[in-house]
Specification:
- With about 250 residues, this protein is mainly alpha-helical.
- The chain has one domain (about 5-245): Rhodopsin 7-helix transmembrane proteins (Rhopdopsin 7-helix transmembrane proteins), CATH 1.20.1070.10.
- It contains eight helices and two strands, in the order ααββαααααα.
- It has helices at about 5-35, 40-70, 85-105, 110-135, 140-165, 170, 175-200, 210-245; strands spanning about 70-75, 75-80.
- Helix 3 packs antiparallel against helix 4 and helix 4 runs antiparallel to helix 5.
Length: about 250
């Protein structure tokens, strides 16, 4: 376990604490907001709330694991015998990443056939991406980390291509009042997701030791807040707009 200093310990702790508060607040907001959208969009908003609820639970566990991994004393921060369990984050992603893509598909109000086809393809790629990334995340060997990063980037690139080319026709078929919002939701998804592979490679770019631990944990947390809580609220706004215009 890397010997971090007090400032690094508190920065990561505060980031986890902030994520817990944001995910919890977003969950309450989204579940209460279901009554404001038309029945055909309730599933999309419900899934948004489930995503932030899952994230809320896992960030609580991540925060507890972080606190258990270190002891703060009058002389600084020392590592305990309990190892920080970063697997909580990947379990979270395994559940939430496919659901995030389904939110976007469902709020478009496509035909059942298109929804099932596009949702299944994107969700499968998302699961593959997370599963391929985990072996690299837990490896301390630079070559191994690069190998799994490149493998995980294959489904990642597939998802990005599908979001931009595969959904263009579906987005263009949206009512004019929400077309730009749906396009922006797609862009937000891609931009927030691009943050993850960048954070992943920080240890392979010479950012090591306590700095790497701090940057990776805070970086992933910021990306999660944007990709889950902010995106969920955005999906809710699209659903409300479409419901108001009977789209």
């Amino acid at each position: 376990m890397e010997m971090i200093n007090l400032e690094q310990f508190e920065l990561v702790s505060n980031a986890f604490s902030f994520a817990i508060a944001v995910m919890g607040a977003a969950t309450v907001f989204l579940f209460l907001g279901r009554s404001q959208v038309a029945p055909k969009y309730k599933t999309a908003v419900t899934i948004s709330g489930i995503v932030t609820l899952i994230a809320f639970y896992h960030y609580w566990r991540i925060f507890d694991s972080w606190q258990a991994a270190y002891t703060v004393t009058s002389t600084g921060v020392t590592a305990t015998v309990t190892k920080f369990n970063d697997a909580y984050r990947y379990v979270d992603w395994l559940l939430t990443v496919p659901l995030l893509l389904l939110e976007l598909i469902l709020v478009m109000g496509l035909s059942r056939e298109e929804t099932v086809s596009k949702g299944k393809a994107l969700a499968t790629a998302a699961v593959a991406m997370v599963l391929l990334g985990y072996p690299g995340e837990i490896s301390n060997i630079t070559g191994e980390r690069w190998k799994w990063w490149f493998l995980a980037m294959i489904p990642f690139v597939y998802i990005v291509i599908k979001l931009f080319s595969g959904l263009t026709k579906a987005i263009n078929s949206q009512p004019e009042s929400v077309r730009q919002m749906v396009s922006d939701a797609r862009t937000l998804t891609v931009l927030s997701w691009c943050f993850y592979p960048v954070v992943f490679i920080l240890p392979m770019l010479g950012v090591g030791g306590p700095e790497s631990t701090t940057y990776v944990q805070v970086g992933y947390t910021i990306a999660d807040i944007v990709a889950k809580a902010l995106f969920g609220v955005f999906i809710f706004a699209v659903a409300v707009r479409k419901s108001e215009s009977n789209a």
